UniProtKB/TrEMBL annotation:
CDD domains: LuxR_C_like, REC_NarL-like. The modification 4-aspartylphosphate is found at residue 54. This is DNA-binding response regulator. Coiled coil: none annotated. Transmembrane segments: none annotated. Pfam families: GerE (PF00196), Response_reg (PF00072). SMART domains: HTH_LUXR, REC. The keyword DNA-binding applies.
Length: 209
């Protein structure tokens, strides 16, 4: 039996994933979490072969969960299931230690196949991601500026582009306003931009929001 833990901050999303997996006789959902701290606790107390993880969590995000698992030498295999476009995030997640990536808008049956594949020690990506990986190998590297951003910087960019004020971003990420201002300054420097409006335009042009 493949034991799965779900981590997504939306209960309805977790329910949808759980219902999809319940149709597979060889998969059992053993736990659920809605944040970084919750999933850390669940993984300490619950058997898990595959963690299905969202990227956009309150406070510390999915990439930080990946980093924590890797640093701790965890044997849990991670499938990212996210709303973010594959062409912007899949390769980033795989490089960070994920074992698979699926878009939430994809075919639910693909989720079952992905869990089974990952539990067997293999990687799982969609046909679109496979093509991107092949293209990356055969073409000269042309990384975007935002590929150099840290997890916190990327989170800050997405929230600024979504119209959040710095005080709101600080509250949502559980950081001080001063710290968020530092991330914003780094964003402007790394992306070679001048203000929040330009950050928003950059995010839209690069289909990050």
């Amino acid at each position: 039996m493949i034991k799965v833990v779900l981590c997504d901050d939306h209960a309805m999303v977790r329910r949808g994933i759980r219902d999809t997996l319940s149709e597979a006789v060889d998969i059992q959902v053993t736990g659920e979490a809605g944040s970084y701290s919750e999933v850390r606790e669940v993984l300490r107390t619950t058997p898990c072969d595959v963690l299905i993880l969202d990227l956009n969590l309150p406070g510390r995000g999915g990439l930080e969960v990946l980093a924590s698992l890797r640093e701790g030498g965890s044997a849990v295999r991670v499938l990212i299931v996210s709303m973010f476009a594959e062409d912007q995030y899949a390769i980033r997640c795989l490089r960070a230690g994920a074992h698979g990536y699926l878009n939430k808008a994809g075919d639910p049956t693909e989720l079952v196949a992905a869990v089974r594949t990952i539990s067997q020690g293999r990687k799982y990506v969609s046909a679109a991601v496979s093509e991107m990986l092949v293209n990356n190998l055969s073409e000269p590297s042309s990384e975007t500026l935002h590929s150099t951003l840290s997890e916190r910087e990327l989170q800050t960019l997405l929230k600024i582009a979504s119209g959040r004020k710095l005080s709101e971003i600080a509250e949502e990420l559980m950081l001080s306003p001063k710290t968020v201002s530092v991330y914003r300054a780094r964003l402007l420097e790394k992306l070679k931009l001048g203000n929040n409006a330009e950050l928003t335009v950059y995010a839209i042009r690069n289909e990050l929001v």
